[in-house]
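LOG
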Amino acid sequence: MTLTHIDLDIRAGDFITLLGANGSGKTTLMKLIAGILDAREGDIRYQGKSLKAFPVAGKVGYVYQNPDNQIFAETVFDETAFILRMRGMAETEIRERVDAILINMGLFDRKQADPFCLPKGDRQKVACAAILAGEPDLMIFDEPTTGLDHPSLKGLMESVALLNRNGKTIIIITHSMVTAADYGNKVLAMRNGEVIYYGDKRLFFTDDHLVDLAKARRTEIMEMSLKLNGKLLLNEKEFLRCWKKR
């Protein structure tokens, strides 16, 4: 996929949902930002430094759509501890850091489990925990909710939202409009290798033309709220809050 006219600024603490049809360039752009792919033209800068001269490894974490492409260790603990052991960290410090991460991810009681025996939602969390151990500033998730039932999706996304509240910059590639409605403060929308929108989530979903260009769609709650009073409500919480005020 060839990308053209890409010009955007991702700020620390952003929580971005990346939308667009299959083949629009979403994964290509994210892999370029993560340093997995090399840009043939143009320049990508991290904290003002070009990735051509400044390796981004360790600063940007990438969680693949299929967690089984990343997981390899025999236990959840060993998977999460791997990068720290590669850096030569003392085992006592590793234990403290890994345990803290697994508690935050809701995986502490599974730390001695074989990750391949866990449900997909938990395997996604394990892949996330392993990346998180390296303390990246930016975490990119490629379709993390695909194939998850509602409880697993909710558990994973709440863990991701907690990471954002704790200061991590998050980008999620998703086709789930419910996920885009419930999480994040910005939308990045792509079409045919170009960015067609980058900004406030509510403004994006209010614009019929942009939603159509990105091959996105509004949720039932969004559509209902616009028909009832012309005001976009993103999710159930906003709908109920508005209803109680009536």
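LOG (cont.) second protein
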Amino acid sequence: MELLFTILLITTSLLMILLVLLHKGRGGGLSDMFGGGVSSSLGGSSVAERNLDRFTIGTGVIWFATVIALGLLKAY
């Protein structure tokens, strides 16, 4: 059981890294320092961006639950 949660944790961690890097920069952060602020904002988020947000949040919830489950398994 512990092996399954460990594999799930590694998979969701890598997926979270990928999803966060796919997000568009909002400005004022590191993305502006490296030229990310050049793109123009069209005043709203597209359907693809909203779906990416939902998928990122869902993956984060799974990641968090996996961390909690592994902690509980290690405690007992």
